[in-house]
Amino acid sequence: MSENVLVIGSGGREHALCWKLAESPLVKRVVCAPGSVGISSTKDNVESVELDVKDFPALATWCKDNSIDLVVVGPEDPLANGIVDALQAKGIKCFGPTRAGAQIEANKDWAKKFMQKYQIPTARYKSFTDADAAKEFIRSAPYSALVVKASGLAAGKGVVVASSKQEACQAVDEILTEAKYGAAGEVVVVEELLEGEEVSVLAFTDGETVSMMPPAQDHKRIGDGDTGPNTGGMGAYCPCPLITPEQLADVKDQVLQRAVDGLKAEGIKYVGVLYAGLMVTKAGPMTLEFNCRFGDPETQVLMMLLETDLYRIMKACALGTLKEVQVKWNTGMSAVGVVIASKGYPETSTKGCVISGLSQVSKDEDIVVFHSGVARGANDSLVTAGGRVLLVAAKRASLRTAASSATNAAASIDFPGAQYRKDIARRAFSKINGLSYLESGVDIDAAANLVRLIEPIATATHRRGVLGRLGCFSGLFQLSAMDSHLADPVLVQGTDGVGTKVKIAEIMQKYDTIGQDLVAMCVNDILCAGAEPFAFLDYMACGRLQLTVSATIVKGIADACILSGCALLGGETAEMPTMYEIGKYDLAGFAVGVVDNLKQLPRTKEIRGGDVVLALPSTGVHSNGYSLVQKIMAETGHSFHEKAPFSKTNRTFGEEFLEPTGIYVKALLPAVKKGLIKGLAHITGGGLLENIPRILPPRIKVKLDATKFTINPIFGWLQAKGRVSDFEMLRTFNCGVGMVVIVDPVCVNELLCLVEDTIAVVGTVEVIGKEGGHQVVVENFKEAMAPLTAPYASSEGVTKKSLSYKDSGVDIEAGDSLVSLIKPLARSTSRSGVLGGLGGFGGCFQLKAIEQEYKDPVLVLAADGVGTKLKIAQRINKHDTIGVDLVAMCVNDILCNGAAPLTFLDYFACGALDVSVAKSVVAGVADGCKQSSAALIGGETAEMPGMYEAGVYDIAGFALGVVERTHILPKINDITVGDIIIGLPSNGVHSNGFSLIHSLMKKAGLALNDKAPFSEEGLTLGEELIKPTRIYVKSVLPALQRGAVKAVAHVTGGGLLHNIPRVIPESVRARLNAHWWNVHPVFAWIADAGAVKDDEMLRTFNCGIGMVLIVSPENQAEVMNITRSHGAMVIGTMQARPAGGARVVVDNFASALDFTRRMPLLTIKRVAVLVSGSGSNLQALIDTTRDSSQCMCAEITLVVSNKKDAYALQRAEKAGIPSLVFNFKEYGSREEFDRAISSALEAHRIDVVCLAGYMRILSSEFVQKWKGRLINIHPSLLPKHPGLHAQRQCLAAGDRESGCTVHFVDEGMDTGPIITQEKVPVLKDDTEQSLSERILQAEHRAYPRALRNVATGRVRLGSRGDIMWHS
């Protein structure tokens, strides 16, 4: 420990170097010149000395006198001025390049030529000394020449990345003409603007060897979200994951080593740090610039991770022996540094402010505070002494934790005017251990593969009338393709599942027949209404999508559809990893049939005593009673893999119990159509005793003789082994009868001849006498069962007690109770066309009720669920809105085909039925139905013990709608380049992506009762996440029915990236701008809490847009007029799609998320509207500022008029907004009048003034006073047609388009800088009035958009009177 080191500099970078050098066992003393208070207090062996570091001879003498072994130069200025040359000439070793080497930073023109010469990848450029030539190049360059650099040293601030050519030209003037950077700006370099992420890669070098440091990222802009002016750097983090290891290897070889070798070839031995500022583009890393020294603030975070002795590295560089040193970094940790700057920075700095809170921060050994601009004040206090005052650096195991620790530490340090960024490292969060939907257990690609796999299977089921294919939002069926003899068609709809039979399929790993069960349970039900089934949809829920299993199930469904004459039109596959274990499934189905109203069954009024009862046999247990089956199997110790003693074909128990449900459509439909049948009863849950009464009139009963129908031996085994009573058998199982038929005696023979399948007379219909009694009597059941139970009647292997369905966990009485409770809810949704009520086999809708509205109606069918959002409802015990989600997911889908919802059915599956919970869910369904004008006409409640844990349930929904064939959407062939994309806001997450949310909550240790950090209402996470999916029927349907929309996309699973492509042709792409809508705060929280990548966000969540409409420019105004009150906004356009290019491009999503994060920090701007007339633009501003989904950050707090009878004053009064009227006649001059208004505006603390049809010429004094805060709207595309009668001028000029312009106001006539414009096409037959009306509607869209930009700070008026944009 004998070496002495001199560090040149005084900032945070030098503090970090001194701190690290002082740790070296080789170093005795570290001296910093001129140093700082903070540096002096680093360690005992560190001190600051006052030296004139510009006096190189004196400095060399001092080094000799003080036995300095190594001089480390921090800043770039001494290096560029030749400090190393001077010291080395005196034999003093230095860490830093010579003056010639420092050119690589000090002379950007030289550096660019050097990079070109040695083929170092960099942006295209040109250098200038003449401002006019530079500006002409900017305007005419074949690339975006928007990066303007002062060639010399400008303290890290001489680079302007312009957002427009105008801003770039302004930067040229500032550097060359105004000499903003003095001699450093004598040459200006104009570069190509590269797109990507900026990354800093530094390296130690001895002139031969390059030892690369971990990549870091600096944050140059002063404000969060990279807003505001450039600075020397507001924070940094390391390692930076935005560059891959492969790219880093290229940087080392093609940038750093190539530069060192090139310098050597130029005769320059470069020693020290070589800093490459890179842009990681799609084409790979490109060099933006080189620096000849350590970066600030990168150095501070790099030193936190350096494990090797810094002095040893530097000495090796100076001696040329770097290759002998193995430099190690702790890249398993992350370091984040947050700069705290003084008030006014970067334009000015505030000195002398007392700093507090440092002692509190110093308690954490992994948090270090580096001093950049600190001095000693009175009473030994520390005070600010520069722009950048401190940097708080934290080292942690994860980047997110390090960022949080550094930001929190910065928050605990205080001084007047302190400012710091709260988003350092945020851009990298998506790359560090980011969650994805796939990692959460949901594989979107697998679902897409399944659709491709099953599409030909479904297509094979199609029949005449089917339109479209799988993969669309809904299934379509043209009614005119049905029987032309249907005079008064009635649609009959049924839904059902297969109960716990699916558990046996899972046990046996045999799924090929379970699909037939699903179809049979539905089509047999609608057959009972006399209907011919023609369409089917399925819902499949699972823990993980297994393609083979799923395809097998769908193949079974398709085969059964063919058997029953149904077309498989679509369905929903729900992968729910936190609700179902892997390998577990549940199924629900939805069938639709049609019958002439006069031929509906049952003909209850015609059923009378003396009618004959016939039965078609069941194939086995069918799909009901399986909870009791499994209870018996478990209690008797049998395995489903054992051979079944009752099997006639030597099959196992599992194979026998999986015998598929019989389908009776083909057997009975001819007799139904011929009118031979009075009633049909499908024997399902409830058995013979509860299903037959559903078709009987009061005071009528059916008497069956059990010896007349064949009872399958399987029922004998079940009764014997489970000691099940006769009554329980008859109300749980079908007991050999699959379908009961009631006919008039005179029709029996004809029926028997017509039905080709097995059918037998099994009983009669009788009148119930005065003595009363049950509606179903089964005689001789005990006698019929005796020979079937006898083989198994021994006490061995029999249950200890008589088992019932209730013993197995199914409570039929509870189910009946629920039906009685929800009948009023269903009735409350009824609409014209609904026939009957709940309790029948199917729900019925009479099409005559809507026939006046449709010439060629097409039915649109959709199925969906709500995924693992259910877990939120179940965990917070709030079930009243989840039904709204269910309806929304279905009816929003059918909107995508242009259809109006008509009816809805729900499926509710649970382990144990909680009647109050189920009622609450159905109440939500009813609410959703009312919101969408759909009638709740039926459903299914499935109690499945063993499949769902206590308190857990799943739900599925099925919606049916209708659309005129000529209005079917999407009109894919009509969609073209230039079409407008309109978005309607979501209500939050809606019902997709919840598996990822569950994963991030688990990973972050969050609970649903935690306060939601993004909630504006102070709600918990559970309360925020449970908010229901928005239903878009009333907001969108009117536009669809006018034929003004080309396509609609419901943004569900797959997000914007996967749903929009479903409705657009391959030749175009949707280009969206995320700045044009409000990204709901919940999505910023998800992105941050789960470190979710932007692309993953966009393909998993709706990200603030729940529904997308594509319209032609000609129809934009009409559609926006209809939908604006529902929050609609233009969010993009259709473009030509490059070959192989993305089908959806979302610009500015990252910065839109940043804006959302900043929203809570923004102050609400107080806005005054000056108006002279009706105030329609005032109304548009009032409506949007009061719509929280618009994120306006503004409120209208004052209305001012120069006319006391202006209708706008009534609008203000109605809205509760104060108003003032100023009469010009009461003032001596225009200036005096304007001063009075200005004083009123100031008294009301107005921030922004909007002119809305204000028919006064403003005085220059007023305009100057409110400059940058005064905006106006004009009815033309300025600069064309300023002044009055703009529409008349437009028509006279023969323009093909007009529109409106919102601009800042200056002293000229409509000459102020433009904020936004909206185009309106000029139509062939337009008059001045018709064009004016359409432009006015465009104004109602453009003005709020412009106000939002101004109020949120996205746009402002620059000091030179030009527009400044901040993303």
UniProtKB/TrEMBL annotation:
Subcellular location: Cytoplasm
Listed NCBIfam families: purD, purM, PurN
Coiled coil: none
Keyword rRNA processing set for record: no
GO cellular component: a single term: cytosol
Pathway membership: Purine metabolism; IMP biosynthesis via de novo pathway; N(1)-(5-phospho-D-ribosyl)glycinamide from 5-phospho-alpha-D-ribose 1-diphosphate: step 2/2; Purine metabolism; IMP biosynthesis via de novo pathway; 5-amino-1-(5-phospho-D-ribosyl)imidazole from N(2)-formyl-N(1)-(5-phospho-D-ribosyl)glycinamide: step 2/2; Purine metabolism; IMP biosynthesis via de novo pathway; N(2)-formyl-N(1)-(5-phospho-D-ribosyl)glycinamide from N(1)-(5-phospho-D-ribosyl)glycinamide (10-formyl THF route): step 1/1
InterPro entries per UniProt: ATP-grasp, ATP_grasp_subdomain_1, Formyl_transf_N, Formyl_transf_N_sf, GART, GART_AS, PreATP-grasp_dom_sf, PRibGlycinamid_synth_ATP-grasp
MF term (GO), any: phosphoribosylglycinamide formyltransferase activity
Protein's recorded name: Trifunctional purine biosynthetic protein adenosine-3
PANTHER family per record: TRIFUNCTIONAL PURINE BIOSYNTHETIC PROTEIN ADENOSINE-3, TRIFUNCTIONAL PURINE BIOSYNTHETIC PROTEIN ADENOSINE-3-RELATED
ATP-grasp domain boundaries: 112-319
A Gene Ontology biological process term: 'de novo' IMP biosynthetic process
